[in-house]
Amino acid sequence: MAKGGKDGKPRGRMSAYAFFVQTCREEHKKKHPSENVVFSEFSKKCAERWKTMNDKEKKRFQDMADKDKKRYENEMSSYIPPKGAPGKKRKRTKDPNAPKRALSAFFWFCNDERPKVREINPDHTVGEVAKELGKRWGVVGHELKSKYEALAAKDKARYEKEMAVYKNKKPKAASPTKGAAVAHHDDDDDDEEEEEDDDDDDDE
User: Fold this and answer.
1) Which element (helix H / strand E) includes 46?
2) Distance of alpha carbon 98 from the chain centroid
3) What is the predicted pLDDT for the residue at 191?
4) What angle do CA 6, 43, 54 make, to 5 degrees?
5) 20-74 pLDDT, tens per residue?
6) What pLDDT does 74 receive?
7) Residues 86, 187 contacting (CB under 8 angstroms)
8) Coil, strand or helix at 10
9) What would you measure as the largest C-alpha separation in the chain, in angstroms?
10) CA nearest neighbour of 37 among 48, 47, 26
């Protein structure tokens, strides 16, 4: 069984286009083993070539996708999720006035690449799109990656500055009794947990 994770869950199925790109990549590596491929440019060329191919030329890859779909459905039919898997954390109400979380370099990259992936693979699920974006990020050249890292650093500085202002403006509850002081301390803990939840939201 092809496994996609530690829990033994089957690897997700691939589309006909994904098989096409994979084949192109393998052929390119054989012809140019030492060449450093810029994936964004390579992917663009693949997309242009795919659009000019007729149904007969695409059939080979469609057959591969159909076969992989059957493999996936067959494996999923016998897949049993592990017991005791942690459930999703309870959502906390987010303060609409809180600063927007800073994005990582990868997420700035995704903002640019996601529309391209969607255009090429309109039938992809959110997970499949995320997987493709991860593959693209893994082969991004140093120059392009530096661009997104710079955007991330700038956004982080913006977030830290706005967060400092936000915390100073946040009203602090009076604590005439020891119990009230403890309650206020718990609220601060909730804020920290809420920020962690926000990280989960950004990672989706």
Assistant:
1) helix 39-52
2) 23
3) 46
4) 110
5) 988 888 888 888 888 777 777 888 888 889 999 998 999 999 999 999 999 888 8
6) 87
7) no
8) strand
9) 79
10) 26
pLDDT in tens, 154-194: 999 999 998 898 888 866 554 444 444 444 444 444 444 44
Residue 125 half-sphere exposure toward CB, CA atoms < 13 A: 5
Structure tokens at 171: 């009203």
d(CA 168, CA 86): 36
Q: Flag whether the pTM goes above 0.70.
A: no
Query: Facing residues of 17 across strands?
Result: none
In the three-class reduction of DSSP (H, G, I as helix; E, B as strand; rest coil), residue 3 is classed as strand
Residue type, 12: G
Q: Which amino acid is at 52?
A: T
Over residues 135-144, the mean pLDDT reads: 87
CB 50 within 8 A of CB 24: no
Nearest Cα to Cα of residue 203 among 121, 151, 123, 134? 134
Which single residue is written with the structure tokens 């119990």? 179
